[in-house]
Amino acid sequence: MNDKKISCGRKKRNGFLLGLAVYAGVLLLLGAVGLYVFHDYLVHFEASQIKYALMDYQQSLEQTIPEAAEDALSELEPSIRDSEESQSFVQDLLQNAKLVKDHLNSSEESQLYSVVAADGQKLGEVSFAPVGEMRYHLPVWGIKQEQFDFSPYYRTSQVTVPPDYMVFLGNLRLEREFIAEDEIPYQTLEECYRHYADLPTLVRYETPPYLGELSLRVCREDGTELGPEDLTEEVFLDRCSAAIREEAEEYVPEFVHQYVSFSANIHDSAMGYYLSLCRMIVPDSQLQTMLHLAIDGLRYSKTRSVKVLSTEICRMTDLGENRYLADIRYSSEVGGQNGRVQMDEHIQLVLIDDGGTLLADALYLI
To answer: What is the pTM of this model?
Structure first.
């Protein structure tokens, strides 16, 4: 009887232990499943963070140019700089760029970032938004929109030169379609424009925008390259045949001597010098009229002596139609009631080639 009770007690205890073991096993299994699910959630939650989309985008900038960036470059003129060179310039910018969050214009549904170059210049914007879902309804971030603007790095080049000069940007010769303005008057010829037609003018070349550094070169028609310091009116206008220059070298000193003596009117000699000058000037020209009108005023001259010390033709300009402009500086020693003084004068003299003989047509005081 006792043995049966003991045996029954053992069976009950064994059954309890078995149930307890099963319960514990179920709890362990549920705990393991819970831990797996929790771990899996954490893995997916981490993967759902926008930082990974940012990292992927940053890496893509270091390797390739986004399509939106290529679209931004499409406005550049390929004849100035080919697309590969422009893309290479942009690629260098993007490789060192960083993403900066625009907190003001970002929200939970959309994150806006600026693409900023190493020098701090903004290159564009890219927005990120959920483009799908992963497990647990967690978002998958992707690019929503991109836009780029490289205009802060655009360069343009311009130069004003005579129409027959050649202008190069890099190795490209700029043709007439790059002339933004023509018939620009020379400031040096301001007086001449008032009295003569069809005088030389300038043109202004201007390039479309381009990226990077390109050298601008200017050459004369004969191929002689000019330095930046030579791109002045004084250099442009100093152009004349050697034969005319040689004739002017003989003509100008004599003209200056007669003109200075006429202006001094020593002992009422102005009329005599006027007649001598008339043989050196164009009949009925504006210069002859000017000299004739000046005679009456010269009788008040108090000059007692005058001597031309030096005469220099600074430049000779071919004005077209057998007209030439001599830019002249001369020094003279003038004696008066208070002694002698040196006078330095600057004049422009319009000369006409009359069948091989130079005659003065106009004189301008500078």
So the answer is: 0.78
